[in-house]
Write a structure and sequence with these properties.
This is diguanylate cyclase. It catalyses: 2 GTP = 3',3'-c-di-GMP + 2 diphosphate. Keywords: Membrane, Transmembrane, Transmembrane helix. The longest helix is centred in the first third of the chain and has 55 residues, at about 40-95. By secondary structure, the protein is α+β, with helices and mostly antiparallel strands. It is built from eight helices and seven strands, in the order αααβααββαβββαβα. The protein is about 60% helix and about 15% strand. Strands 2-3-1-6-7 form a five-stranded mixed beta sheet, with helices on both faces. Strands 4-5 form a two-stranded antiparallel sheet.
Length: about 260
């Protein structure tokens, strides 16, 4: 309705302007040529613009309104398509169970950190005795545990850090702009966030869940795989040392760094 009102008003204005111009030309040019503007001339000066200018301008203005509406619909469709594309791309980056970054996306973050001028660390965390949880309580409870552990890891991140699920019960955290002390403190904070409070699962069962954490600085001179291999090796050192602990690449410095943080 708004478009129709605009067309009617504008076409009426165009017709009125045409009538005014027609009358103006009649009273100036006809006498100059020796003619006389009589009743028929006045009638023609009014009727011709109304019969020609009004429908012609109304048609053109209506086509313009249609084009504008089509353009607006196209812009809206493009925005919706872009939002759908962004949502799909974000879904593709995420682990379906925990909502964390998936393995490929997390390793891409490691690659970005490797090319940065700031020192970054990669932490690899693995749930201790997770197979026992699945065997005793079922895989549905196991999935619940993974989801809650993911939430605790996410809540312990600093600005610029990233966390992802590498697969199974293994997670990874990228610490941006982290020196040795920050890395040690962050790894211990993540370990404690999981271990300090039992995880409540179906049936009101409280499970004591712990993680082992291995970490390594990301060396810009080495490929991404090297950082993961080094952190993973530290993880297995933590497992062999009794689990529920942190081992970083500079293992001999960890205790001192934690004590000072």
């Amino acid at each position: 309705m708004a478009a129709i009102r605009r067309v009617l008003l504008r076409s009426t204005g165009a017709a009125a302007l045409s009538v005014a111009l027609s009358l103006g030309l009649a009273v100036t040019i006809v006498p100059a040529l020796g003619g006389v503007v009589d009743g028929n001339a006045w009638l023609m000066c009014v009727l011709c613009p109304l019969l020609i200018a009004w429908p012609a301008s109304a048609w053109q203005l209506w086509q313009h309104e249609q084009l504008r509406a089509a353009r607006a619909a196209l812009v809206l469709a493009h925005e919706e398509l872009q939002r759908a594309h962004d949502a799909l791309a974000e879904t593709a980056r995420r682990d379906g169970l925990t909502g964390l970054l998936n393995r490929e996306s997390l390793l891409a973050v490691v690659e970005q950190a490797r090319s940065s001028s700031d020192v970054a660390w990669l932490l690899v965390a693995d749930l201790d005795h997770f197979k026992t949880i699945n065997d005793r309580h079922g895989h549905a409870v196991g999935d619940d545990v993974l989801t809650q552990v993911a939430s605790r890891l996410s809540s312990g991140l600093g600005e610029g850090d990233a966390v992802g699920r590498l697969g199974g019960e293994e997670f990874a955290v990228v610490l941006a702009a982290a020196d040795d002390g920050h890395a040690a403190a962050a790894a211990e904070r993540l370990r404690a966030a999981v271990a300090q409070t039992p995880i409540l699962v179906e049936g009101g069962v409280a499970l004591s869940v712990t993680i082992s954490v291995g970490g390594s600085a990301i060396d810009p001179a080495l490929p991404v795989r090297a950082a993961y291999t080094s952190a993973d090796a530290r993880l297995y050192e933590a497992k062999r040392a009794g689990r529920n602990r942190v081992v970083l690449a500079a293992a001999e410095k960890v205790d001192a760094l934690l004590a000072s943080s």
